[in-house]
Amino acid sequence: MAAQDTKLSFRNDYSEGAHPRLLQALAQIGNEQNAGYGLDRHSELAAGMIRTQIACAGADVHFLVGGTQTNLVAMAAFLRPHEAVIAADSGHIATHETGAIEATGHKVLTVPTPDGKLTPALVQGVLDAHSTEHMVRPRLVYVSNTTEVGTVYSKAELTALRALCQQHGLYLYLDGARIAAALAVAGNDLSLADVAALTDAFYLGGTKNGALLGEALVIVHDALKSDVRFIIKQRGAMLAKGAVIGAQFQALFRDGLFFDLATHADAQARRLREALVAAGIAFAFDSPSNQLFPILPTSVVEQLEDKYEFHRWQPHGQGYQVIRLVTSWATSETAVEAFCKDLAVLLAPASATQETH
Amino acid sequence: MAAQDTKLSFRNDYSEGAHPRLLQALAQIGNEQNAGYGLDRHSELAAGMIRTQIACAGADVHFLVGGTQTNLVAMAAFLRPHEAVIAADSGHIATHETGAIEATGHKVLTVPTPDGKLTPALVQGVLDAHSTEHMVRPRLVYVSNTTEVGTVYSKAELTALRALCQQHGLYLYLDGARIAAALAVAGNDLSLADVAALTDAFYLGGTKNGALLGEALVIVHDALKSDVRFIIKQRGAMLAKGAVIGAQFQALFRDGLFFDLATHADAQARRLREALVAAGIAFAFDSPSNQLFPILPTSVVEQLEDKYEFHRWQPHGQGYQVIRLVTSWATSETAVEAFCKDLAVLLAPASATQETH
Amino acid sequence: MAAQDTKLSFRNDYSEGAHPRLLQALAQIGNEQNAGYGLDRHSELAAGMIRTQIACAGADVHFLVGGTQTNLVAMAAFLRPHEAVIAADSGHIATHETGAIEATGHKVLTVPTPDGKLTPALVQGVLDAHSTEHMVRPRLVYVSNTTEVGTVYSKAELTALRALCQQHGLYLYLDGARIAAALAVAGNDLSLADVAALTDAFYLGGTKNGALLGEALVIVHDALKSDVRFIIKQRGAMLAKGAVIGAQFQALFRDGLFFDLATHADAQARRLREALVAAGIAFAFDSPSNQLFPILPTSVVEQLEDKYEFHRWQPHGQGYQVIRLVTSWATSETAVEAFCKDLAVLLAPASATQETH
Amino acid sequence: MAAQDTKLSFRNDYSEGAHPRLLQALAQIGNEQNAGYGLDRHSELAAGMIRTQIACAGADVHFLVGGTQTNLVAMAAFLRPHEAVIAADSGHIATHETGAIEATGHKVLTVPTPDGKLTPALVQGVLDAHSTEHMVRPRLVYVSNTTEVGTVYSKAELTALRALCQQHGLYLYLDGARIAAALAVAGNDLSLADVAALTDAFYLGGTKNGALLGEALVIVHDALKSDVRFIIKQRGAMLAKGAVIGAQFQALFRDGLFFDLATHADAQARRLREALVAAGIAFAFDSPSNQLFPILPTSVVEQLEDKYEFHRWQPHGQGYQVIRLVTSWATSETAVEAFCKDLAVLLAPASATQETH
């Protein structure tokens, strides 16, 4: 399955290398000598910048390589063997991590949702079904923001989940692989400080927001902090040259770059969305962030694939296909314009044809 | 435990960032769009270069982030639940991976060795002690080259282990975190092609030889190849931007850089060793590579620590200490000269004092 | 939660100790000396009787203690780490084993079903959703017969599942905790020989069919046979005095006792069912075996609970409750008659009341 | 490997079925209806009898099937993923459980000992070698009493271990598969109440002391008590008919049977030992309990094997063999006499031959 690198890609937000300011940060550590395993000054400074940004001086910050790794380290560290995670059935840990959580011994209890978001009622349903020692004990609620279908949580929604979790002794964990894209959405009312106040742990995604690699696991709840570095090492997740991630996060949290990159990605998606809406295209999910799920005629999809890369998400009835378009910090306006233009051309006759029937 | 970054460090070979040619390779992918998860052209080209170098066209090559991660992915992929690994009791998987192999469910059976190296007799002893289903079944022999105490395997030694393994249906796996340093040792008679011919799987270490991060897992034995990408993903070891490692290995295997960097590291160690020998210092291990284990008076060690960083390895009787000195691709001749000079000054009075007794 | 042992219990089919002929078999081994760990002559003879019964001379037979243990040993032995099980969402391994399968590292993929039974279409749906190395690989289909809601598979249904499994390289595994009850159902067209011919592995339940404890894991597919005793030992499932189970299975398969006990249990359930039907009661599941799921007015349920023990299965709308009634090899006709009589009395006014509306 | 059931066996203490009083107890529950999963009145009464015997009203008691199962349930319940067990390298969990502890994810750190017993100094050595997050964290000390080589701990020895454990935050766990045999040794100064006072958890072995099956896990330390029933269920260790074990432990702790059976076993071993000593035979271990390890000429061993069953433990130089002789609650005086007599005959010419050299 060779990569078709010559097409313009809307396949994901991790196709491009890294933002120039991050590459520059890496070049600067090239000749330094740094302490290993995340104990270097870059990691320490970056952790401090994150603590300031989330307004939580007591948080523990660990820099890890990728999202699946971060999720599995967290679950392995936070849960006893019989304790389980509750997630939407579209949750990344449930569907796209090759059973990484189960490989640490924990069950993922899933709930169908229309929009990828958990609600207190959905979580309560899982709790109601688990009452004895013949079943796993639900202990941690996993949410993603943005979700895997591009939707976002409002502050009220996250607050309501938090209240239910506290009532039942559940931890609330937020997968922030695309948290920058979530917070940059127009109309979003959540801040990173809110996230820190409302969850017990979460992570800030770097890989999908301009870094070569790197996620920052933030642990707020004191009970979850102990011995996490042991678990990181045990799971093969402790980077020898930790400064590689630390230096990138320093760059991301200097002068708001973390947010600027996501704002750019969301803006490009908005332009795509407006063009699609204008062309009368419907969407499988109402996603305001940098992932779009338009429903297109299969013939149009096939023609688009000659010039562009993107995921075919799922079939949608006879002759239609949901595709996923993702924009990133590196998506150029030129690329968006080209796509919109090509799409318009392709749709014009298609609709014309449809109209004649 | 803040890093003392201002001292000259002989603490390890992963203190420095990356060789300029690797940083340049990373900068070049900065603006490219690449396929994710190791399916990019850089990873494919680098894998091809490695296959050529090891003279094994059929080998599978997977790029992973670090050594512990590579070891645990390999054991999880290669072994059934009741199968165990045999290792020297100084082996990295036995001592310095926080039980990563056990966390995948497998026992590590250890054997004491004087020099960190397994022999057929030592392996046979473990086999003899494991005969029934009430015990784990030894299935894979783990060796490191260089070993954790800087020693190296000769071609004859590895060939003898290989013969025993074939006789008993054992896999032979070589941890090559420092394989470049092993092959660059003066008098070494092993080539990468030999390693590929004599083992079932091994890895080529990048982190300790000039890369920001990255190890190349090479699988030679067909029976071990299937579904390894599933295991990589499941263990959180699949890098979204796989080109980050692929591009670095392209640079390492272009024009022999991989070997040149190790030759430099070994040469600096040789100079250190010669200076120590000249000063009458004994060593805990007879290591010809880039790790040295001199036995020094504790008072000298303390004074050296004012200006240099290194590991205190273990106490050595009353008033003496084994330390570990490690050189790297980035160790400057100036640093080595400075250390030798300071050491000479410190030892002069020390020996004088000793001589008066 | 103290046991209310003085009420008549329809709670389950493992309330009573063991059939007299099994107790007698245990008494007989009381003074014998037997080889340990299942290598005794009783276990060997019992295994032979089972091989004869299932008409499969090459099958491996392992005697284990309980159902959850048998399931987890089988999954640990049969699957590689990234391979997953497909089960009905009511499957015992999915709901009532406290995550035992996940604790061995494997994901259980569940499918909603109306009647607890998997179909080729349901399995195909799971296969369609799992296509890449970012997801687990479905490898084994788990069915229960009887199912957890008392339904049974026909020979045609099992044959169809088998065909799909063979087409896609899936193993078919049958949880036979209540297989005797399934085969004893009036109209059943499956034999134990059919089960052996259509599945790759299955187990014959003793605990719920007259034994103090004990299940017989039967492995038909050669690829699944190797080293299973290692896995049994590793999971703490190897009984030191294996003859304890072997002797009971000898007794169960002598003169058809295994089938006679289930026939008795099913017959008692049929009498209960007929009484319930006659009283106009509906059922949550159409179960022909020894588990019944009538929908009763909550007030009736409460009154029944004064004299009888049974599970409240789930609420059923306002004022109604599904309960589970289970009969066993030891259920007396007297007990069934008493229950029917009490029920008739309780329902009489209730239906009267209903009729007035 | 068919069992040679016709020879007299000194192979182990679990060859015979069960003591008549236990078989009678099982027959009595044959027609009762009991609550499942260990919540029956027999288990509750037996737990109460044990609490009285150990003088620890607050202890939790769980009835499990076998020793490996009990050990793995305890380790899975008590330890976080990076926490390790310290054991003698002859410890059952280290050698004869097919990696059961590692299969729960935990490393077993082993120490060579001359007599199977841990000491504070040996434990301290392991602690000294484990200082950072790159290594597992030793958290629980595992001792067996009797040990696997038949030796026993004195009260002073256990008290000293306890003190070290408390000093370093280690749990002390005692594997009591043969604890009755340990306490019945002449001169023993430990009581079950002492064991409860000095350890955090331990188990009382039934299988090797007259039961068909069954071990009683006793948890003394409050921090270890929570949710253990979940772990028991998850590991397939929750017996549906828990009364099967409960009723046997009722019988064992009624009128001191538990101790009487072990006293008988130890007495038979003492007679064997005296005969061996009188014949000038040396022992590999100085074991005062029901396991003996005499060093015999291989020719004698071979002749004994015609009439008796026992383990060949290990070779002992040229022409000699250590064998293991085990007596049990069921070993008859006749059997011991027969063995002694045969041995005397065999040794007579053998010593004669030796003397001529």
Automatic annotation (TrEMBL), chains A, B, C, D:
Q: Which cofactor does it need?
A: pyridoxal 5'-phosphate
Has UniProt tagged this entry with the keyword Transferase? yes
Gene3D superfamilies noted in UniProt: Aspartate Aminotransferase, domain 1, Type I PLP-dependent aspartate aminotransferase-like (Major domain)
Q: Where is the Aromatic amino acid beta-eliminating lyase/threonine aldolase domain?
A: 61-284
Which family does the entry's similarity section mention? Answer: Belongs to the threonine aldolase family.
Keyword DNA-binding included in the entry's annotation:
no
Q: Which InterPro entries match?
A: ArAA_b-elim_lyase/Thr_aldolase, PyrdxlP-dep_Trfase, PyrdxlP-dep_Trfase_major, PyrdxlP-dep_Trfase_small
Q: Which SUPFAM superfamilies match?
A: PLP-dependent transferases (SSF53383)
Q: How does it assemble?
A: Homotetramer.
Q: Name one Pfam family in it.
A: Beta_elim_lyase
Name of protein: Aminotransferase class I/II-fold pyridoxal phosphate-dependent enzyme
Question: What GO molecular function annotations does the UniProt record carry, in alphabetical order?
Answer: lyase activity; transaminase activity
Q: Which UniProt keywords apply?
A: Aminotransferase, Pyridoxal phosphate, Transferase
GO BP annotations of the record are: amino acid metabolic process
